[in-house]
Amino acid sequence: MKIAVVILNWNGMLLLEKFLPSIVEYSPQATIYVVDNASTDDSNSYIKAFYPTVTIIKNESNLGFASGYNQALKNIDSEIYALVNSDIEVTKNWLQPIINTFENESSTAIIQPKILDYKRKEYFEYAGAAGGFIDQYGYPYCRGRIFDTLEKDSGQYNDNCEIFWASGACFFIRSQVYQELNGFDGEFFAHQEEIDLCWRAINEGHKIKYNSQSIVYHVGGATLQQGNPMKTFLNFRNSLLMLTKNLPKEKLYKILMGRMVLDGAAGIQFLVKGKPKHLWAILKAHWSFYGFYNRYYKKRSKTQCHKYYNVKSIVYSYFIRKVVVFNDLFRI
Predict the structure, then answer these.
(1) Which of 16, 76, 144, 237 is the most exposed place for a label (fewest CB within 10 A)?
(2) What element of type H or E holds 14?
(3) Reported confidence tier of residue 109, pLDDT bands at 50, 70, 90
């Protein structure tokens, strides 16, 4: 299959120096592209000097994750897009298991590999781990990661299974499906756009898979650190926008009301922890959401997946039941 490995870059020359070598070495089946979001560092000159086989696609401004990829992928002819963060280290033979799945499963549209922590390679990494899910209220969690608790990889997720969302840190998608769904939602800018795209794909009858035979290591937080209030703002706002677009109509208003209560509780928790900027970020996220609401309601597709979650409230399970391991969520 024709596969394009596409790396989004913004002033990330140091990351490219560290992680581009593994991608070039271990991706003989692929054509490699770097999409540059108007960097002002020496990223482009570095690539031209040391990796002339890598194609650079220049965006005229910093379009963020979503629009940055949308713009660039218009110029890439390939059957499969492998969208890879610039802080990902890949491993030998990381592509072949993914290609095999796409070749053998026509209904599979999106695949995520096993994502481990670059800094602690025996642990799963926050952004994706062993495949993602959301609860009834749209809060994301993963096999191997619930909120800030990361599991050690002891082979408990060495399978190939269906998931609800694949991480944008290392995201494989059939190009035809990407184009049919009009790619990522550019108004998200960054964060949770991959969950929204996966949900829209599922609404259209496609499957999302996790493949444990493909392994990558992710640094995480290279663009926005976990403690950055902007990350809090984008995560809370984009989650609400995603729910508005994709929830079954009869559940929409009930779920949004529930989110107001839960987000309020999250804001109070930030305040108690001495993080008032994050409380303010949640308030701004809700104000921004209300301004977007009517436009996003019109983005709803004709069909919605009614069974979109397998845990009613991950907040209740984690903070009240004290469940910190994914497999324990389903034990009484």
Answers:
(1) 76
(2) helix 13-25
(3) very high
